[in-house]
Amino acid sequence: MPPRSKWRAYRVPMTYRAVPVASLLAGITLPPDGAIEAVALNGFVAQLPPDLVRNTDASKAVAWLAIEPADHPWPPFPRREHESAGPFYIVWTGAEVGSIHSEQWPYQVAKLVSQPSPLSRWPALAVDSALPPTDPARAGQALFIVQCLTCHKLNGAGAADVGPDLNLPQNPTEYFTPQGLHDLIRNPRAVRAWPAQAMLGFPPDHLTDREIGLVIAYLKHMAGRKKPQ
Questions:
Q1: What's the structural domain count of the chain?
Q2: What is the mean pLDDT of each run of 10 residues along the chain (229 residues)?
Q3: Is 109 within a domain?
Q4: C-alpha 123: how far from its chain's center?
């Protein structure tokens, strides 16, 4: 059992029963250029690098599959009294836990699936190969795959259907001002709100202003790379 951890979904210290994700993958041959896809009951799909979830060195970050006890259900989320993180939740401990992005803590997990890496599986996500390595759109692409592809598609590419496609038929950079799009990513309800709204936004400890800028740079670049399916 790992020590107490601040769960990203609850944002308070919690104690839980868990098994190392690495032990679940023991003996399984995974492709070197692949991903572990964590599919949630609510349609959320996280792409987790195999090397990350197979690590057991506590000097880095260690992934655990927390298991909701049948006789002691986890508490509901704040302001969502009919929803909790169960039945399974990937949580992290270790010295480098701060390096794990918010969307790499998937909850309501239903299954883990070995898949090709997102870019090899969905080439339509890729930026122009001629872009220099330091172009902000490249860093934005990496962030998009970790933080946005969990809920959205782009150019029809992706496994989730929680939110809309972010390039087809229009890219949000084509109808939002840069500040408006930044505000939407940071806190959607500050821009527009409705009862069925699903997106919760990204506080600064989930995406910094600089990182939001990188995601927007990627989206702006991909507006010129539409690939209708």
A1: 2
A2: 53 86 91 91 95 96 95 84 89 94 95 95 97 97 98 97 95 97 96 87 94 98 91
A3: yes
A4: 19
